[in-house]
Specification:
By secondary structure, the chain is of the alpha+beta class. The protein has one domain. It contains three helices and five strands. The protein has a five-stranded antiparallel beta sheet with strand order 1-2-5-4-3. A hairpin with a 6-residue loop joins strand 4 and strand 5. The radius of gyration is 15 Å and the shape is globular.
């Protein structure tokens, strides 16, 4: 395959290995645990991300008042993504991202648990 190193497989073991390398690279660049990869129900891969900038939004006093999910969909060819946001006078600010291809209740619940494992006790305004 042409440029197989750059354009990895879209599914299977090759995709999971590339995803794991990206998560490890991101955490090393942040010098923190900002992303985690998990394989959950029925082999569904999940990625949870809470970047250093997103972690700062957790320090806002109103971040514990309300958090909402936006799963707009159709953002990529695999229809992945779910965003966790909080409200501010400037609009919604991101608390984190859970990337999954499934939006069933069990997968979302497992994705949120994976996301929670990235957070400190001061998250969501304490």
């Amino acid at each position: 395959m042409v440029n197989k190193q750059e354009f990895v497989e879209q599914s299977g073991e090759g995709m999971l290995a590339a995803l794991e390398r990206q998560v490890d690279s991101h955490n090393a660049a942040c010098d923190d645990s900002c992303a985690k990869l998990g394989i959950f129900s029925a082999g569904t891969p999940l990625v949870a991300i809470c970047s250093p900038l997103m972690k700062q939004t957790h320090s806002l006093s109103n971040s514990g008042e309300m958090c909402f999910m936006d799963s707009s969909g159709n953002m990529d060819r695999e229809n992945c993504g779910m965003f966790l946001l909080t409200h501010t006078c400037a609009g919604g600010l991101p608390h984190g991202i859970v990337i999954t291809q499934s939006e069933d209740e069990r997968t979302i619940s497992e994705g949120l648990e994976l996301f929670k494992s990235l957070l400190t006790k001061d998250a969501f305004g304490g």
